[in-house]
Amino acid sequence: MQAEILFGLYIFMLAAFLGLQVISKVPPLLHTPLMSATNAISGISLVGSLVAAGAHYNPVSTALGFIAVTAATINVVGGFLITDRMLKMFKKKEGKKS
Amino acid sequence: MSATLIQLTYFAASALFILGLKALGSPETARRGNLLAAGGMFLAIVGTLVHQDIVSYEWILIGMLIGSAIGGAMAIFMPMTAMPERIALSHAFGGLAAAFVGVSEYYRQGAEMELIHTVPVGFEVIFGALTFTGSLMAFGKLSGWVTQVPVTYKFQNQSNLSLFGIVLALYLAWLFTPAYPVLFFIMLGLSFLIGVLMVLPIGGADMPVVICLLNSYAGLAASATGFVLSNNILIIAGSLDGASGLILSIMMSKAMNRSFTNVLFGAFGAVAETAPVTASAVGSINEGTIDDSATVLRNAQRVIIVPGYGMAVSQAQHALREVAELLDSDGTTVKYAIHPVAGRMPGHMNVLLAEANVSYEQIYDLEDINDEFSKTDAVIVVGANDVVNPAAKTNPSSPIYGMPVLNVEEARTVIVLKRSMSAGFAGIDNELFALPNTMMVFGDAKQTLTKMVQALKA
């Protein structure tokens, strides 16, 4: 168990450095879609809520899990859809009508 | 067997998330990047559904249906101007989900929890709860339900810090005595309270930093969930989200020449009180008509447009693009200059211009365009104020002194579209409005620009 936590910390650190590298390359032009996409990605906490809602640990856990599933699904579905809607609008000149 | 399958889908999903974020680095590949990340998410969810602990699917299905309906509706119907509000709401949902997963874990394991579990569960619950209420406050401020003016009172920072100290003490006590739920629930309640109190003193103009910071917290809470559930993909996704929020908040703070601590504890309004705002302090201004400004624009060879939050408020981006296109078809070079903190969240203006069909090749960041103002015939400032205030360069006593601003005053003529002579969000006078080469055109930006289109066509 101890090893698992330590392993998790390594993963956390490496992902954080990778994130800093990758995200600092995103131009200000795309900062709003970036934020909305990372938001959708962190909606991955849904997978944790799924287990809480679907396993019959106890009624309270199920209820809290159900609310968490709903909240996380809003982020996942809404996040990816709206990011796509935004990115669809970023066009070069040819999309112009005059 | 099923455990291995789940781990494999998580492994693939992690890779897809990272590839997706990388593709978000350029407008050509960004849409594909988002799809990659969404594909990763789909894999991870389908994989999780075969988890051995899951014995019934009814609550999962109902939750996902409700969530998809709300999320889908928000994605389709939310106007682009309301993007900051939507982002704030989604941080709130993320925080809530994290906090509830933590509470649910506590209910499951209860008094038998060991330190390996209590440490991340407590962290998750604290950060999840304060992200939830803090983001709801940010949402309220952005949508006008809660006053955008910083709310301050005596000993505010001291009382907030002591409150945080109490939560920390409860956390430490609970770590070693998880059998006392009362500690846990007071900690949870106070964390909700801290979220509210933390955002209360922060003004509208500082919202970009706050939103980024809450983004970072939501990521940390998600990561803590990963530690609670020993789930690596949660750790990775949360860490990426946390890093992204952190980078953006540092960028936003830099763009305002302020430190984190200053944004969080400095309550801008308190500064503005010492520098009272009166229109008379600005001096005489040149008011121009729409025809005057159209004449200036018709004679200009190079025009730069500077949009600000006022453009979003009056939904003027489409009319603005029409003006720009008319000028462009006359052979005038038109560029857009975007200050990093224009609007209420990073990149807000870019999305609005993209929505109005402005090509992203015409849009320039502060550092790329700031030297061009001196070679520019006319600048149109639409609903921007503090980001074009020369006091940031010249007046050391100004609250925004040192903040990088757009050098619009170097252009031959500056046309400022403004609703009235009120001060910007920082509550400071703008001497730009009184310069001899500035022409003020008062009125609603959208109406003014629509009339300007007609004037230019005539």
**Cα gyration radius of chain A (Å):** 19 Å
Number of domains of chain A: 1
Report Rg of chain B. 25 Å
Number of helices of chain A: 4
Give the CA-CA distance, first to last residue of chain B. 74 Å
The secondary-structure element order of chain A is: HHHH
Low-confidence stretches of chain A: none
The helix-and-strand class of chain B reads: alpha/beta
- Biggest pleated-sheet summary of chain A: none
3D architecture notes:
The complex is a heterodimer of chains A (98) and B (458). Helix content of chain A is 77%, strand content 0%. Chain A contains four helices and no strands. Chain B is an alpha/beta fold and 458 residues long. Chain B folds into three domains: 1-77; 84-270, no CATH class; 286-457, TPP-binding domain (Rossmann fold, 3-Layer(aba) Sandwich). In chain B, 59% of the residues lie in helices and 7% in strands. Chain B starts with a helix and ends with a helix. The chains are: A mainly alpha (98), B alpha/beta (458). Chains A and B meet through helix 1, helix 2, helix 3 and helix 4 of A and helix 1, helix 2, helix 3, helix 4 and helix 8 of B.
Describe this protein with a few key phrases.
heterodimer; A: mainly alpha; 77% helix; flat; B: 458 residues; Rossmann fold; 3 domains
Topology:
The complex is a heterodimer of chains A (98) and B (458).
Chain A: H1 2-24, H2 31-42, H3 46-54, H4 59-89
Helix pairs in contact in A: 2-4, 3-4
Chain B: H1 2-23, H2 30-48, H3 58-77, H4 83-109, H5 115-143, H6 156-176, H7 181-199, H8 207-228, H9 232-255, H10 260-265, H11 268-274, H12 290-298, E1 302-307, H13 309-313, H14 317-329, E2 333-338, H15 348-355, E3 363-365, H16 366-369, E4 378-382, H17 391-394, E5 413-418, E6 438-442, H18 445-457
Parallel strand pairs in B: 1-2, 1-4, 2-3, 4-5, 5-6
Helix pairs in contact in B: 1-2, 1-9, 4-5, 4-8, 5-6, 5-7, 5-8, 6-7, 8-9, 12-18, 14-18
